[in-house]
Amino acid sequence: MQSAFEKAIHLIMTGDAELCNILFVTARMSLTSSIIALLIGVPFGIWLGACHFRGKGLILIMNRTLMGMPPVVCGLLFYILFSGVGPLRRGKLLFTVNIMILAQVVLITPIVIGNMETYVSGIAPAIQETTRGLGLTRIKTLLLLANECIYQIFFVYMLSFARAISEVGAVSMVGGAIAWKTNVMTTAIMQYTNRGNFSLGIALGMILLTISLLVNTAITLLQRRLSK
Amino acid sequence: MKISAFSKTYHGVTVLDVPELELHPGKIYSIIGSNGSGKSTYAKILAKVLPADQKGPQLDAGITVGYIPQKNYAFRMSTKANILLGGSDSAKAERLMEVLQLDSLASQRADRLSGGETSRMALARLMMKHFDLVILDEPTAAMDVETTFLSENLIWEYAKKSGCVLLLITHSLQQAKRIADEILFFHKGQLFESGPKERLLFAPTRPETRQFLEFYGI
């Protein structure tokens, strides 16, 4: 086990080509999917939290259901849709990074929406009461509401990035964990462990944790700086 | 200024049923009554924060309504920036901050102010603009004696100078006595009695009003 650790550190220090490729694919997939989910989920979550309309309860129930969707179910759906006999086969997306991003977006967006909705529904009544009392426009109210959500957006981003980088079920099904193409850290760890190549698996695990630590530290520092 | 009669029902129970009111510009009307008497509900409906039953209160065309709720919201920005949300006149904002002893807190984050400071900030924010009808729901409840007096002077000055109709909801009969011109007594969701403060405080006609005032030692 000790030699596996030593080998893992050696792979990291020497910049192993396969390791670098896995890192690149992981970064591309996690960053892109978490940012897209944020761009869709934040405005939708704010709108859901701030507005009252008929059918809102149903949308919330559906969103909460999607928040708990097992990644393998999501992967299966995308696999059926994009496989050779699926209705979307012409897209030729199966076993590409793009479909992995798409699957991740479907998994993460409900989490972003749910978190934003819960937060906004807590502060929106007081804000709306205040802005109405001052005679401010709806657009101004919405901008002020969005400004009040900045820290929550940071928190939600951390959550969605963590989900994206650590997810394995959906990406392995739709991406196929193809070496040098769609293999990301989580699928590679599974693959190398199954093959008995513990050193590369440990190296990837260490990097995965380090990246997560760095991203969370950076966002927390930025959040603290903005709160001053 | 006329405010039409309206009512509010929750789950089949009428919590507010108020007749038409005629209010005069430049006057301060204090709404008094015990908890649950419908004072705040009346204010919220007038400010269009809450809907009334059927048709909402009808105000004369073009009437602007300013409102400070019981719980003031301080946005995550400086105290001065919060006040400037009410209007863009920076010199006016500075004068209001000076009067309300907020000048030393101008650059401080408003969401970190104390309860009393937040109430003063909210008062300054509202007074940046002219409204035809101003509704203040317990604006000095979180303030100390000194800043309560400062705020009362400012409220009185604002009403008299701007010529607005000012509705002041308060639990303090002393405050009503100090700055109101007329008093409206709410009881169980109804306007029980109204009139000039001297008459209503010292010679009420309804037994419910008398009982309420006796409880407060008047």
Keyword list:
heterodimer, A: mainly alpha, MetI-like fold, B: 218 residues, alpha/beta, Rossmann fold, two-stranded antiparallel sheet, 8 helices, 34% helix
Helix content of chain A: over 70%
Average the pLDDT over all residues of chain B and give the rounded result: 92
Number of separate strands of chain B = 10
Query: What's the helical proportion of residues of chain B?
Result: 25-40%
From the structure provided, what is the oligomeric state, counting identical versus distinct chains? heterodimer
Based on CA atoms alone, the radius of gyration of chain A comes out at 21 Å
Number of helices of chain B: 8
- Low-confidence sequence ranges of chain A: none
Largest sheet of chain B: 6 strands, mixed
> How many domain units of chain B?
1
What is the CATH architecture descriptor of chain B? Answer: 3-Layer(aba) Sandwich
In the residues of chain A, how many domains can be counted? Answer: 1
Element order of chain B: H for helix, E for strand:
EEEEEHEHHHEHEHEEHH
Q: What is the rounded Rg of chain B?
A: 17 Å
Give the helix/strand layout:
The complex is a heterodimer of chains A (228) and B (218).
Chain A: H1 2-14, H2 17-50, H3 56-67, H4 71-82, H5 97-133, H6 138-148, H7 150-166, H8 169-175, H9 185-195, H10 198-227
Chain B: E1 2-3, E2 6-10, E3 13-18, E4 21-22, E5 28-32, H1 39-46, E6 65-68, H2 79-83, H3 90-99, H4 115-126, E7 133-137, H5 145-162, E8 165-169, H6 173-179, E9 182-187, E10 190-196, H7 197-202, H8 207-215
Parallel strand pairs in B: 5-8, 5-9, 6-7, 7-8
Antiparallel strand pairs in B: 1-4, 2-3, 9-10
